[in-house]
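idk why but the lab printer keeps eating my pages so im just putting this in chat instead. protein + adenosine-5'-diphosphate:
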Amino acid sequence: MNAIIFGAPGSGKGTYASRLQSRLGVEVIATGDIFREIMKKETALGKKVKGYVEKGLLVPDDIVIEVLKHRLAKIPKEKGFILDGYPRTLEQAETLDEIAKIDVILLLTVPEWIIIERLSSRRICKNCGAVYNIRFLKPKVDMVCDKCGGPLFQRSDDNPEVIKKRTQVYEEQTRPILQFFEERKVPFVVANCDTLDTPPDAVVKTILKNLSKLKMV
Ligand code: ADP
Ligand code: ZN
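predcted complex ->
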């Protein structure tokens, strides 16, 4: 199964994708994670990418598409994948359409007030990228990753000003591309989350139930 997990910043794409990864035996490609790795390096590309990410702007399509193709080529033919954070523009969607078949869109719908709450208290493991929340999804030990013991940090783009920009970019440039997949009759699984304390596993369960109705798992 090849899926796109689609939703606003802070809708939980990464959290659910990593849980679905182990349940479904698929690979996850998270372009945001790839860019954070690239940004750690002080290369010309790293600096260029950083200039966009830290302002909450989209990285230019040519860079994103190059990164996606490279990563997609590493996935064994028999294995499925979940794309997290790609596509974000119409050009990215069109390129994807030329190189892979998408079986389903996992659409996360979350009210804006929840997004703001979640993003401002989000913390990430420096080591493995696992996502926590200091209010609603706490690690067992303060600021330490449950999975690998790595230190947690706050993403530089998780501040109120940049959150606002990312949300705006999503509404203007990313949400409209859903129409592209509707036109191609790609099925949608919609997972709706309207309380702050909904456990991630409950959302994952809903997604799995709906995938099984579509006979995809
Ligand atoms: P979120 O969904 O929480 O905003 P991501 O980790 O998916 O975060 O992405 C972080 C940043 O990386 C984005 O704000 C953007 O600058 C950049 N980025 C990630 N994926 C893409 C993409 N497909 N196209 C353009 N920019 C991207
Ligand atoms: Zn970790």
